[in-house]
Amino acid sequence: MSQPTIRAAQLVFTNVEAGDSKAGQRGFQVWQASKELADVKRDITRRVDDYRLPAGVAPADQHVYARDCYFPLADKKLFAVARTVPLPEKDKFGRGGRFFAHVLVVEAEDFKNLHFDPFQLLDAAAFLGHPDELKKKYEAEWKTGEIPGVDITIRPDPRDQAGLPGQARELLVGHCDREPDKLKTVVVVGKPADVAAELRKIFRALPPQLRRTAAFDTLSVGSSLTQVPCTFAGCPTADALKMWAFRRFVRFDTATQTLTPAADPAPRSLLAALTATEVWDVASSSERSAAWDAAGAIHRAATSPDALKTGASAAAAAGPVALSLLQACTEFPATLKNLSTSWEKLHPAAVIGFPGVGPALQKYLKVGLSEQLRRLGSEPPREIVAEQIFNGLLSASLADPDRDVLTQIRSWHDEKPVNRRLGLLLLSLLDRVNIELTTVVNNINDPDSAWLKQYLSETLKCDGRAVPAMSDKLAARGEIRPEDLAEAELLCDVSDDPAADLLRFQIAFHRGRSAVERHFAAHAPPSADDLLKLIRPRIVEGWTFVENQLFLGFYVYPSSEAEYVVIREIMKGLSRLNRPLVKHFLREMVPEVRPVIGEAPLREAIIQSAPVTDIVKRILDAKSSPLSESKTLSIRNRVENLSAQHTEELLAWLRSKMIPGDCFKQFPAPPFDAFRVGWEFRWMTQTDASSQIPKLVEIVLGLIARRVDVGEITEPIPPMTDRDRFMWLLRQFPGKAN
Questions:
Q1: Strand 99-107 and strand 258-260: pairing?
Q2: Could you tell me if 27 and 146 lie in one domain?
Q3: How does pLDDT run across 174-202, given as a tens digit for each residue?
Q4: Last residue of a domain, which of 266, 297, 323?
Q5: pTM of the entire structure?
Q6: Which end of the chain is more exposed for a tag (fewer CB within 10 A), N or C?
Q7: Which position has the higher pLDDT, 220 or 533?
């Protein structure tokens, strides 16, 4: 298998004479750099320009103090490793201290493939150590000051490298897993090569995510750490460490594997505990990276519900070894518990605290680790929550739950409904007057209709007393609220009590309207006592309803003196309204009721109605005086402007007064062709009323004004006075003239 190759940009910081410098300057400078590093030259220089040999190092030993560095750049979009070696030659003025720093810079995506392990770069790179070496390698480019990048072939990640013991791993991981402002530099005392060897062990123990920011310098002078902080730094001797002005550090004792002074006490973190497991030693870098990603994501999710889905999904996506790492971590069960608690926080408190919901969620999570993480990474199971709430609401112990709790639960449910019956249940508890409940109950094709009807029947206590009690409530003289009527209507829908018919009649009475498509008396018309019970409140809406019912054909036929009393009460009530009552009272009730209620109240009721009965009023009043031309014109205008509904009513009234085809037999000496007029009227009333308004106008005006145009007259009309003509006309309408 071919080994991976990474492209690295290059930068060299060293001391050269002016003749070798593109800028024509002598001394320390960025001598060579790849063009893609133009924006980060300054940042790189700050990391390598502080190289100093320890005091007293013999020239023959200077090579021992070659320095290795690792640091992130440009908001961690670039990562660099550097090797700095001392140069034995002095400059032209005889000054020493020259060094050669060769820096390799890789992009974050490439470095991530190495699990942010800088030692893989340090081991694989062919660092240059002298200006002459660079001139020879880049003979054609060096004079421009711009050398190209270089390809680095990465060696396989060895699994048999020595690592830190578990306790030391946990100690260092816990120390490094802190906020930057709380992190102290870890100093390792020893020669640079020894420091690098120890850091190699430490970096093998560090999770890849901590490696990203764990900059190190194997030969630090201390003073520069204030400006360019490092997570790890090497110091050649303990005496030199004592001379450091920089004091914000802890020393790692390689012999005892401890930190001095001891780090500030902190709770043991999941991430630190993860690296202390035995499985960590045998896991590859990729497996450690996956485990660390998962653990870190879970750690964040356990404290932030917003990170829950991302965190648990990352954990669920980890490989088997990564999962075994998590499972081997002693802190993981507690973290999972916190995570599940955080998961529950995604529900409102009222929802998660509802009886049965919390245990149901915990039971849902008690599965294998991989499945548990997968579930935690998915959206919380609203179906389970909804089912538990539904069962809780149906239980006897929650017959009267707190309204605020129900409101919160309904708000949660309405965001994404998953259980329709729960929605209907909440609706019945919070808004029983909602029309949706009535719609579902009355729709036999709705799959939830039977269940909802049964539930409402039980909760409304339809035990034979509910309907009469509600009927008595509506019959009371007190104010009836709309919600009372809505509850009564719902009671009618779910009850099989025959008394519900009267209750429906009462509901419509109080609302002042009726639905034509619904028959309010499924079993029998209301009795006289029922009607009397209805009209006692004497509200306008109730009278309107009674009137509408009469026009719909819901008639009351008086058969006893008691019922005549009821009819008289109805007549008195209706006489106060300005309503068209002609159809019922002139055609059906008037002939039978007149002997009981008398002519005057009847005429008063008829005269008070409008607009159709305005014509009847004129007819009745015309017995004393004929209509003038101006009154005739006024009536014409009224009839021409009738609405379709009133036209139908007038046609119905006229139809009931004439006997088409036979009326000529009743006329002893007809003043006009009665047969022709009757037949023409019959044809007209059997067609669309609105299209016959002109003909209707002529007939009505002809009857009223006694000037009927009959077309061809078959025989002469005998002379008659206007009064004789009108009295003859009235006699054609039985019961309307004496």
A1: unpaired
A2: yes
A3: 888 887 778 899 999 999 999 999 999 99
A4: 266
A5: 0.52
A6: N
A7: 220
